[in-house]
Amino acid sequence: LKIKEENTVMYYLLILVLLFLAELFYFKVADRCNIIDKPNERSSHTKVTLRGGGIIFYFGALAYFLTSGFEYLCFLLALTLVTFISFVDDIKSTGQMTRLLFHFSAMAMMFYQWGLFSLSGGG
């Protein structure tokens, strides 16, 4: 799905509105499913806060990926890993080592995307 130059602004405005509506919808789901963070002595906030709203960012990136001719596959896979483990951690706490494994795997995918594993030494 490619968009024409003259429709670019309208396309991005449409995506913005859709993502905003998705975020509002997510707030209702998170509230209903009790996906919240209650403040404690280590918290930077003082009120109960909804968690997991960052998952909507992923859908924006996915929309770009689907309309860009499937460029940057490793980036999307890395973002998928980080999104998944972050959302799971928002719902129920995951161990530090599990999160670290997911984040290092995502970082390795990005390094591969950028060609940092090649032995040629750059150019």
From TrEMBL:
Keywords: Membrane, Transferase, Transmembrane, Transmembrane helix. The keyword Transmembrane helix applies. The keyword Transmembrane applies. Signal peptide: none annotated. Coiled coil: none annotated. The chain crosses the membrane at residues 12-27, 48-66, 72-88, 100-117. GO terms for molecular function: transferase activity. This is UndPP-QuiNAc-P-transferase. It comes from human gut metagenome.
